[in-house]
């Protein structure tokens, strides 16, 4: 290559976004050798046709890709390169999730150790499997909002007769009421870190009895023959869900139908938005362009009240239905712009409100 077409390492560094020291490292590793090296001075020169490879190398290293994988991507065709990049990203995400879970455990153990001698106020005693089920069901209604971290928490209200768990992401509101095996000594209300409760759920499930105690900054879960777990409290105020529940108008339409058939219809629906047409014939789940693979579905249902047409986001309606207890689900409907109550047809201790979407948005 004529010298006029070559760039010294400083110029090439500016063109590629790599530092001169990084270019020397990648040259020594064989990933990006210079086009020429002056035998007398040792100066390295690069060609314009190397800029694309250098830029790709920099971008791959910015996503923490190992050198061996970087080399494979740079030397592969587009299809294989995409597969390798996707595999690396999946590995990074998996490692991040594992690290997050371990961090929750570490924080919990540190807090537990620091509060080992701190007295706790007894709140309630509950059967472990029942509490674990309730925690996992209600936590499906949480959300991670940068401006409202409390939406990632589980709100607990305890009195002598009941323990009520509540969560909301502003589009759903799930609540379940449990009967403690032993009454609490005094009313208690707080919002607990959802991630830490989620991490503790497997241990809770394996414990026949779990005693919940309030500590200065969280709750302590005491389990026979197992290490205590501590979950932090969230300081922000939980949304006024009681006002939401109290202000609900009476249902104008009620539909009771098989839970699994409704779930199957939602899962097979080709769109992310779902329309339900509820009439005395049943619950109709239409598709925008029905075809043999995605036909309209008519679900048998016991319906009372007025016919009603509603639209939902799949991510709102599916979790509300899937967490319902029992083989049949009951929908209490109030109108196309009012929350729908989703609960078991025969067990009402788990209730979820699901907010419809504007049908005009769905059509758009």
Which helices and strands occur, and which strands form pairs?
Blueprint: E1 6-8, H1 9-16, H2 20-28, E2 36-37, E3 44-47, H3 51-62, H4 67-75, H5 78-114, E4 121-126, H6 128-138, E5 153-158, E6 163-168, E7 172-178, E8 188-193, H7 194-205, E9 210-215, E10 218-222, E11 229-232, H8 241-246, E12 253-258, H9 259-268, E13 273-279, E14 282-285, E15 297-299, E16 302-305, E17 308-313, H10 314-322, E18 328-333, E19 340-344, E20 350-354, H11 359-363
Antiparallel strand pairs: 1-3, 2-3, 4-9, 5-6, 5-8, 6-7, 7-20, 9-10, 10-11, 12-16, 12-18, 13-14, 13-17, 14-15, 18-19, 19-20
Textual characterization of the structure:
The protein is an alpha+beta fold. It folds into three domains: 3-75, Multidrug-efflux Transporter Regulator, Chain: A, Domain 2 (Orthogonal Bundle), CATH 1.10.1660.10; 119-240, DNA Polymerase III, Chain A, domain 2, CATH 3.10.150.10; 248-363, DNA Polymerase III, Chain A, domain 2. Helix content is 35%, strand content 28%. The protein has eleven helices and 20 strands. Helix 6 (128-138) packs antiparallel against helix 7 (194-205). The protein is flat. The mean pLDDT is 88.
